[in-house]
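Quick review question:
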C-alpha cells in the first residue's frame, strides 16, 4: 500500500468548512501543523496548536500577504524526493524539513468575479499565487506528499490518518489528479475573466464526471455525465425519486427547464425529444397541465414535464394518470410528492438553482467546438411592429407573445398554433416551413379557427400564410426580414389576419 506517515502538514484555506475536524485529527496523530494568517488564527481559536509559516521559514509575510509561502523551506520541503540521496543531503544542508501533506484551497476568484459590481482590482487581488504553487508542487511529488484541495475529501483523509497514520499511494495519486484539475480550472477562470469576452482566443473547459450511464442515445453508445459546477440540476441530491436518469432523460429535462423558466406566470411544459409537444399558462397549475397534455396526448405519453412553481396535490393526482419519464419543478407539496412516489420509476427532479443560466453555449462539431452566447433575447413592447391593416386584439396579442416564446424552444423550422395561451399544434424540425405549418395543423385536436400562429423565422414565401389562412388563423407573429415581406403582408391582409414583426429570429438547430 506504500503508506506514507504524516509528520508535518501545511493547512492554508479560504473555505474553512470542515478544516477544524481535519486539523484536530492530524494533531491527535502528533502531526506538526504549519499555517498562515487567517487559517492559523481560526485553528488556534479552535484549540489546535499551529506553527505560523513565518516562524517556520524565519521570513515574515510581505507585500500585504502576497508573499507568504513562496520560500525554499516550504517548496523544498514539499518537492524533496525522499528516495533521492542527493535531495536528502541538500535538504539536510539547508535545514529543509520534509512536508508530508498540504491542505490548501484557493482564494475565491470564481465567486468574486461572479458578483455584479466586482472591480478588476478586487478580481486581481483574489488571484491566488502561493496556493496553486504549493498544490502543483505537492501534486508533482505525490509519491511522497498528499495534497488535499476539496473539503469533501476531509472525511476519507481523517479515516486514513486514524487507521493507517497516512495515505496510500493510490489515495495520493487520486488526490493529485484532482488537484491538478482544480488548478487547471482555476487558471481557466482567470483567463476567461481577463480576456473580457465570452469568446476568448482559446478555450479550456473543465468538467468532472459525476455519473457513468448505462448507455447514450442508443444502447450501443457508451456515455457519462460531466459537470462543471455544483449547480448541476439532474443528479445526486437533486433527484428526489425514481430510476437512474438516462442520457436522453437529461437532454429532455434540460430542454424542459430552459423552456418553463421563461414564464413568470404559472406554466406547464411537456417535452418530447427536446421539443415542446404541449405548453400552457393558467393561474391554476392543474388546468395548465391538463391543457398542455391535451395539445398532443399521444406525444405526452413517455414525456418529460416541467413546472415553474410548486407541484400541487391536484396536479399530482392528474399527472399520475399519465405515463411520464420525469418531472422537474422547483418544489413539491409533501402530499403531492407522496402521490407521485407511488410510481416507483418516475424520476422527480428538484434543481438546486432553478433559474441558473449559462453564459456560453457550446456545440461539438467534427474536429472543433462552436461557442455562442445563449438565446436570451426577448422583444420589448416598443419593438413589436404591426404590419397589417388589422391590429391584433388584446387577447390575440397575449397569445401571440406566448406562442413566440414557445417557438423559441421548438426545433427549426418551427410553427406553433396557440389559443388563449395554450398550444394547439406544434410543427417542429422540418426542412420546409410550410411542412411545419401542415404538421402543426395535423396535430391539432380541435379547429384552428381563431388561433394565433408563431414562426421562429421569417416566411420565405406566402404559402405558409395561405395554409394558415385556410385553417382560420387570426393573427401571426414572426421576425420579418424576408425579401418577400410585402407579399407575405399582402397575403395576411387577404385572409383578414393581423401580423406582428418582432425583428428577432429564434432558430434552434
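Suggested answer, residue by residue:
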Amino acid at each position: 500500500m506504500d503508506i506514507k506517515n504524516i509528520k508535518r502538514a501545511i493547512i492554508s484555506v479560504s473555505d474553512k468548512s470542515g478544516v477544524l475536524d481535519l486539523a484536530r485529527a492530524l494533531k491527535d496523530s502528533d502531526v506538526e501543523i504549519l499555517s498562515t494568517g487567517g487559517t492559523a488564527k481560526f485553528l488556534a481559536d479552535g484549540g489546535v496548536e499551529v506553527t505560523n509559516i513565518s516562524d517556520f521559514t524565519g521570513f515574515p509575510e510581505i507585500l500585504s500577504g502576497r508573499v507568504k509561502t513562496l520560500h525554499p523551506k516550504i517548496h523544498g520541503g514539499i518537492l524533496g524526493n525522499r528516495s533521492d540521496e542527493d535531495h536528502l543531503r541538500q535538504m539536510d544542508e539547508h535545514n529543509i524539513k520534509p512536508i508530508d501533506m498540504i491542505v490548501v484551497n484557493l482564494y475565491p476568484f470564481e465567486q468574486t468575479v461572479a458578483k455584479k459590481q466586482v472591480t478588476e482590482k478586487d478580481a486581481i487581488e483574489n488571484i491566488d499565487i502561493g496556493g496553486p504553487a504549493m498544490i502543483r508542487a505537492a501534486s508533482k511529488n505525490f509519491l511522497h506528499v498528499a495534497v488535499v484541495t476539496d473539503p469533501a475529501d476531509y472525511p476519507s483523509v481523517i479515516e486514513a490518518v486514524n487507521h493507517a497514520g497516512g495515505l496510500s499511494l493510490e489515495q495520493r495519486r487520486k488526490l493529485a489528479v484532482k488537484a491538478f484539475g482544480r488548478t487547471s480550472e482555476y487558471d481557466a477562470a482567470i483567463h476567461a475573466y481577463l480576456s473580457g469576452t465570452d469568446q476568448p482566443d482559446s478555450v479550456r473547459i473543465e468538467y468532472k464526471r459525476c455519473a457513468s450511464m448505462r448507455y447514450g442515445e442508443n444502447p450501443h453508445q457508451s456515455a457519462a455525465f460531466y459537470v462543471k459546477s455544483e449547480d448541476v440540476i439532474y443528479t445526486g441530491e437533486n433527484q428526489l425519486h425514481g430510476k437512474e436518469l438516462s442520457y436522453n432523460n437529461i437532454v429532455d429535462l434540460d430542454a424542459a427547464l430552459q423552456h418553463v423558466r421563461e414564464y413568470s406566470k404559472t406554466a406547464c411544459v411537456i417535452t418530447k425529444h427536446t421539443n415542446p409537444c404541449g405548453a400552457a399558462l393558467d393561474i391554476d397549475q392543474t388546468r395548465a397541465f391538463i391543457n398542455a397534455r391535451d395539445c398532443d396526448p399521444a406525444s405526452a405519453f413517455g414525456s418529460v414535464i416541467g413546472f415553474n412553481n410548486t407541484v400541487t396535490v391536484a396536479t399530482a393526482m392528474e399527472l399520475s394518470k399519465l405515463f411520464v419519464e420525469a418531472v422537474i419543478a422547483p418544489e413539491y407539496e409533501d402530499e403531492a410528492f407522496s402521490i407521485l412516489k407511488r410510481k416507483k420509476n418516475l424520476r422527480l427532479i428538484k434543481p438546486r438553482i432553478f433559474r441558473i443560466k449559462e453564459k456560453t453555449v457550446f456545440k461539438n462539431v467534427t474536429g472543433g467546438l462552436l461557442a455562442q452566447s445563449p438565446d436570451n433575447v426577448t422583444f420589448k413592447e416598443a419593438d413589436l411592429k404591426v404590419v397589417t391593416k388589422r391590429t391584433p386584439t388584446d387577447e390575440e396579442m397575449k397569445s401571440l407573445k406566448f406562442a413566440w416564446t414557445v417557438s423559441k424552444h421548438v426545433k427549426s423550422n418551427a410553427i406553433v398554433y396557440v389559443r388563449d395561451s395554450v398550444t394547439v399544434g406544434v410543427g417542429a424540425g422540418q426542412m420546409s416551413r410550410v411542412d411545419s405549418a401542415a404538421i402543426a395543423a395535423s396535430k391539432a385536436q380541435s379547429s384552428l379557427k381563431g388561433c394565433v400562429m408563431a414562426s421562429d423565422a421569417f416566411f420565405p414565401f406566402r404559402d405558409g400564410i395561405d395554409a394558415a389562412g385556410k385553417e382560420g388563423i387570426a393573427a401571426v407573429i414572426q421576425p420579418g426580414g424576408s425579401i418577400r415581406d410585402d407579399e407575405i403582408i399582402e397575403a395576411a391582409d387577404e385572409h383578414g389576419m393581423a401580423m406582428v414583426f418582432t425583428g428577432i429570429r429564434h432558430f434552434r438547430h
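Why it works: The chain has a mean pLDDT of 90. The CA atoms of residues 425 and 444 lie 5 Å apart.
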